[in-house]
Specification:
Bound molecules: phosphoenolpyruvate, magnesium ion
Oligomer: single chain
Number of strands: 33
Number of helices: 33
Helix content: 40-55%
Strand order of the largest sheet: 14-24-23-16-17-18-19-15
Largest sheet: 8 strands, mixed
Radius of gyration: 32 Å
Length: 876
């Protein structure tokens, strides 16, 4: 264990600054900075015990580190001198608050003790009046709860009892005698003597705040918010000021702008004659900050001025706590305000217009990952509903409709004009038609990287995944959640931004891209260097992507084109074909269909680059399910159906084709090597489509033909030869055509220089690269990953955010060696990570030219790319 001998463990507010967040925690660093900005008479004095002291305390199993007690005593001495009062002085006591303060704020998760320093003597010194006794009873209550673990309810019961006896209904109506009696009753609720010695109180409070870091609530919050356990919390000891000192006193919270809409009017709540705890606890209903203007005009005017000063100093929207004691305003803390996407966007635009921030600074204040909330409908803000169950927020947006349990039922219902939610244990490729038809999707199994989640996000459909409480009976077409049972046709509403499922008819709010959002995106486009494309399979997806600002299609999965359409069978026939003749016939049909489809796609992108990937069908997604087929065979046998022979034949074929591990099977380029006629047909369709568009529009689309799942340079060499031959046969000389490959296998990364010699471009398929580099199956990782996240083996889902040291390193290696061999090699990424802000940062560093992601993530990627460029230009 590291020794802290000689280390400074306690800092006066006057000695800290906002750059010392790691050591002093967010609150400590900001209060120190604020002391400097606003002056010592606006911010009550105090000191911060460092996070390092907390870490040492935890490591030593609850022993305070050497030297801490002495340093606290010295800091307390300085505080007493500055305040002109002493802790525990029977005549004029100093009281302090003892508050937690982690590096990242963890609202309500850690402990706080107020009014510390009161005892049977100093309560008299504080005035012995109602205010003094109110403060004392609060202290005994909080100390008992926080430091000794007495349940809060116990104290609330005693308060209720007292109010009954006094015949009053509000806490504020209790008089001095009541409060004195209540303080005694609280002390009686203790299992031990209430400590009269203020130093003992302080010591216990510091320990309690340290201990709250490892409390169950805080641990759970950190797990969900991915905050490391080993950061520890700082402890802030600050001179108390009193918002409960009468009618000219109050406590409140204030935002420098409206925290929901971002409008430039400050917002907040306050309570007259109250302490801060009352405002946040919800025991009394606070008033809107605007009303403070009439009740305390001077303090209000000063607060407004301070909010402006703080915002200008921190260069971000602020969230503050304040107290007015007898007309005098004090600021207790400030921090950058957490805000929903619409407020973030509004602030960014206003801040630039007001001259507060430069565009790059304004863009940097936005949490890019949350921006897709602005593109989807949501539950109306004031909607009331009862939650049926909660799953993972897998694809944002809200939807409602009748329950259906199968994709065909969804398709049929949509054809009837009914709105439906598809509810399934999990989904597969053959359900994709149902996704199109449904308003939203719910699954009881699978995680954020499950098929349902990926497809839903790709299509911009709301999805709640892994709602494990749902018991779905597909045969009976019923779903049960606890005591509630619902059947097909019953209505539900889902919110894929929160994971909520409800049987109530919640009102939804439609959203349009606001002018502010458009402005932010335009600025982002000026600032970014990475291109942003979209993964789009259909002309409709492509149009949507363009609406959101995509600069091209980075991935058209050509095998997805037919899913859910009447032509799906032709694709299946082609894959299931038993000989060249059969396959040839199926290919002839597909050629015309593909050509028509590609023409639509190229047309929709109007001259922008379009990357079409040749077929990459993991067989299990494209051949019939053997188990279901066996049941059908059985049924046909019993019914002596004429179809029996054909069904049996199909089943035999399925058995021949079935692979134990289809994700590592006859996919991608392997299919092209084994059956060159398939890629040949596709290339013909692509060239013919491009020529048709060229003839119609007069300019050639920028065509990029991409070979998937290449691991050997010779695979690509072979395919390149084939594709160039077909291009020659189809007279592609007038087209702007390039041939490249996906990089999605580790060997391809290691030999990227060799592969680059055969490729005009690389596009990293980080879904498969993650799967193959980590050896985790994309389809099965869900449950296991949840446990890995719990145990902190991983801190992020590697299928959502790049595993930077492992898979990310492979990307950097391949980008580097690929460009060594071919300096003008174009580099892109089209896995799910292309829309993830943290991964985008990595792609910027790796020197990629563009990212490609699902249409709904294009705006996120535009802003995240700008932020990455800004960071890249400001770091050495
Ligand atoms: C990938 O593997 O990252 C990719 C984009 O291809 P798919 O998801 O279709 O395998
Ligand atoms: Mg892939």
């Amino acid at each position: 264990m590291e020794t802290l001998a000689g280390t400074q463990l306690v800092y006066d507010f006057a000695d800290g600054s906002k750059d010392m967040r790691e050591l002093l925690g967010g609150k400590g660093a900001n209060v120190a900075e604020m002391t400097r900005v606003l002056g010592a008479d606006r911010v009550p004095a105090g000191f911060t015990i460092t996070t390092e002291a907390c870490v040492a305390y935890m490591e030593a199993g609850g022993e305070l580190p050497d030297g801490l007690e002495e340093q606290v005593a010295e800091a307390l001495g300085r505080l007493e001198e500055r305040a002109g009062k002493r802790l525990g002085d029977p005549d004029d006591p100093l009281l302090v608050s003892v508050r937690s303060g982690a590096r990242e704020s963890m609202p309500g998760m850690l402990d706080t003790v107020l009014n510390l320093g009161l005892n049977d003597e100093s309560v008299v010194g504080l005035g012995g009046d109602r205010f003094a006794w109110d403060s004392y009873r609060r202290f005994v209550q909080m100390f008992g709860n926080v430091c000794l673990g007495i349940p809060g309810d116990r104290f609330e019961e005693l308060i209720e009892e007292r109010k009954r006896e006094a015949g009053v209904s509000e806490d504020t109506e209790l008089d001095t005698d009541d409060l004195r009696a209540l303080t005694d009753a609280f002390k009686d609720a203790y299992d031990e003597e209430f400590p009269q010695d203020p130093r003992e109180q302080l010591d216990k409070a510091i320990r309690a705040v340290f201990d709250s870091w490892t409390g169950a609530r805080a641990v759970e919050y950190r797990r969900i918010n991915r905050i490391p356990d080993d950061w520890g919390t700082a402890v802030n000891v600050q001179q108390m000021v009193f918002g409960n000192r009468g009618e000219k006193s109050c406590s409140g919270v204030a935002f420098s702008r409206d925290e929901v809409t971002g409008e430039p009017e400050p917002s907040g709540d306050f309570l007259v004659n109250a302490q801060g705890e009352d405002v946040v606890s919800g025991v009394r209903t606070p008033k809107d900050i605007a009303e403070m203007k009439e009740l305390m005009p001077d303090a209000h005017a000063e607060l407004m001025e301070i909010l402006r000063t703080l915002e200008a100093h921190y260069r971000d929207m602020q969230d503050t706590e304040f107290t007015v004691e007898d007309g005098q305003l004090y600021m207790l803390q400030t921090r950058d305000a957490k805000r929903p996407a619409q407020a973030a966007v509004r602030f960014a635009v206003d801040a630039v217009e007001e001259g507060l921030l430069e565009r790059a600074e304004a863009i940097a204040t936005i949490d890019a990952a949350r921006l897709d909330a602005l593109l989807h409908p949501s539950f109306a803000r004031n909607a009331r509903y009862e939650t049926l169950t909660t799953g993972l927020a897998a694809s944002p947006g809200a939807a409602k409709g009748e329950i259906v349990f199968t994709a065909p039922d969804a398709v049929a219902a949509a054809a009837d004009g009914r709105k439906v939610i598809l509810v399934r244990p999990f989904t597969e490729a053959e359900d994709v038609a149902g996704f199109h038809a449904a308003e939203g999707i719910v699954t009881s199994r699978g995680g954020k990287a499950s098929h349902a989640a990926l497809v839903a996000r790709g299509m911009g459909k709301p999805c709640v995944a892994g709602a494990g409480e749902l018991e779905i009976d597909l045969n009976a077409k019923r779903v049960r959640a606890g005591d509630t049972e619902l059947s097909e046709g019953d209505r539900i509403a889902i919110d894929g931004s929160t994971g909520v499922v409800t049987a109530d008819d919640v009102e939804l709010e439609e959203v349009e891209m606001s002018e502010d959002f458009k402005t932010v995106l335009a600025w982002a486009d000026e600032l970014r260097s990475l291109g942003v494309r979209a993964n789009a399979d259909t002309p409709e997806d492509a149009s949507k992507a363009r609406e959101f600002g995509a600069e091209g299609v980075g991935l058209c999965r050509s095998e997805h084109i037919f899913l859910g359409t009447e032509n799906q069978q032709r694709m299946q026939d082609m894959i299931m074909a038993e000989d060249d003749d059969e396959r040839g016939a199926a290919l002839d049909d597909l050629l015309a269909l593909q050509q028509e489809h590609f023409t639509g796609l190229l047309d929709a992108m109007q001259g922008l680059p379009v990357t079409i990937r040749l077929l990459d069908p993991p067989l299990h997604e494209f051949i019939p399910n053997a188990e279901q087929l066996a049941q059908e065979v059985e049924r046909a046998r019993i019914e002596e159906s004429d179809d029996l022979e054909e069904l049996e034949h199909t089943l035999d074929r399925v058995h021949v084709l079935a692979e134990t591990n289809p994700m590592l099977g006859t996919r991608g380029v392997r299919l092209g090597v084994l059956h060159p006629e398939i890629y040949e047909m596709q290339m013909r369709a692509i060239v013919r489509a491009a020529r048709a568009v060229l003839e119609a529009k007069g300019s050639s689309p920028l065509l990029e033909v991409m070979v998937p799942l290449v691991t050997y340079e010779h695979e690509l060499e072979l395919m390149r030869g084939l594709l160039e031959r077909v291009a020659g046969e189809e007279d592609a000389s007038t087209l702007d055509l390039s041939i490249g490959t996906m990089i999605e296998l580790p060997r391809a990364c290691f030999v990227a220089d060799r592969i680059a010699r055969q490729a005009d471009f690389f596009s990293f398929g980080t879904n498969d690269l993650t799967q193959t580099a980590l050896g985790f199956s994309r389809d099965d990782v869900g449950g296991m990953l949840a446990r890995y996240l719990d145990l902190k083996i991983v801190d992020r889902n590697p299928f959502e955010t790049m595993d930077a040291p492992g898979v990310g390193w492979l990307v950097r290696l391949a980008a580097w060696t690929g460009r060594e061999a071919k300096p003008d090699l174009k580099l892109g990424i089209c896995g799910e990570h292309g829309g993830d802000p943290d991964s985008i940062e990595l792609f910027q560093k790796a020197g990629l030219d563009y990212v490609s992601c699902s249409p709904y993530r294009v705006p996120i990627a535009r802003v995240a790319a700008a932020q990455s460029a800004i960071r890249a230009s400001s770091s050495p």
